[in-house]
Amino acid sequence: MFGVRCFCLLLLSFNLINGLHPPSYIKPCSLSDPNLNDCALKSGIEALPHLLEGDKKYGIQTLNPYYVDLIEVNQGDLKVNLKKPVTTGLEKVTLKAVKIDTETKKMSINTLFHNIVVTGNYEISGKILILPIEGQGKLNITVVNGLFTYEFTIAKEIKNGVEYAKVTNDILLMDIERVFFNFENLFNGDKILGDQINKFLNENWQDVLNEAGGAAIEVLKGACKNSLNGLFLKVPYNELFLQ
Ligand SMILES: *[C@@H]1O[C@H](CO)[C@@H](O)[C@H](O)[C@H]1NC(C)=O
User: For atom 7 of ligand 1, which residue has the closest CA?
Assistant: First the structure.
């Protein structure tokens, strides 16, 4: 009896100490490969559909669709609350480039999302681009051809004597072709005023994004970081980044 339990504990700790091998759909690249960026891009293109689906074993949440509890904007005179927004369309993505600088340990991932749709319930009050806005109801934000660049430094963390990679100092840059907004039921359902404001927001989508887009960037950045760290903290550094 004691012997069996002991053996199980041993197995358990053996697993913890050694971490997991990379998932079969990730082909590790060698950091000394002169074409490292090409290797990383190729490996990334193969892995991306699997990563989007999520992989519990590796701590990767599904991004298709992507759920968060709350997005809050508190910017000057503007207050926006999105409760349990659902993001769909993240699977329509093209991985454009992956760059790894082996000296500085900086990595950047460049992706084009063709059509991202965020829906949910909103509450809004205050002023947006000097116009008063007020209401609550259903919301649809559609982002067309969003080019996102996620940049971070690969740090190392030691767990049980084994080195793991970890995302630090991350930033997310975006360059978007077009955004469409549809706030239903603005001003207690005043259709004329509501239509006018939606029209105004859509005509001035770039300014709206500049004023209120920061919160969305934070959410997307969090999604990138969680997905990568989920994987990084389960597979030892040397198994993901071959020397
Ligand atoms: C959101 O809006 C886009 C276009 O503005 C539309 O194509 C799409 O069907 C809408 N989605 C939902 C769930 O309302």
Answer: 142
What is 57-73 written as a DSSP string? GGTBPP-SSEE-SEEEE
Taking a C-beta distance cutoff of 8 angstroms, is the pair 120, 139 a contact?
yes
**Termini Cα distance of the chain:** 43
What are the tokens at 51?
Answer: 């990563």
Q: What is the pLDDT of residue 96?
A: 97
Top mutation candidate among 121, 122, 142, 185 for ligand 1, by most atoms within 8 Å of CB: 142
Pairwise CA distance, residues 232 & 223, whole Å:
14
Identify the residue whose tokens are 């991004």: 63
* CA proximity to 57, closest of 23, 13, 27, 11: 23
Read off the DSSP letter of residue 235. S
* pLDDT lower than 50: segments of the chain: 1-2, 4-16
136 burial (CB, 10 Å; 0-12 / 13-18 / 19+) is: middle
Pocket test for ligand 1, best of 116, 117, 144 (most atoms within 8 A of CB): 117
Domain ranges in the chain are: 65-236
pLDDT recorded at residue 18: 64
81 ligand 1 Cβ < 6 A: no
d(CA 148, CA 158) in angstroms, rounded, equals 30
Look at domain 65-236 and name its CATH class. alpha beta
How many other CB atoms sit within 10 Å of the CB of residue 210?
11
- CA-to-CA distance for 198 and 213, rounded, in angstroms? 16
Q: Please tell me the predicted confidence (pLDDT) of residue 109.
A: 96
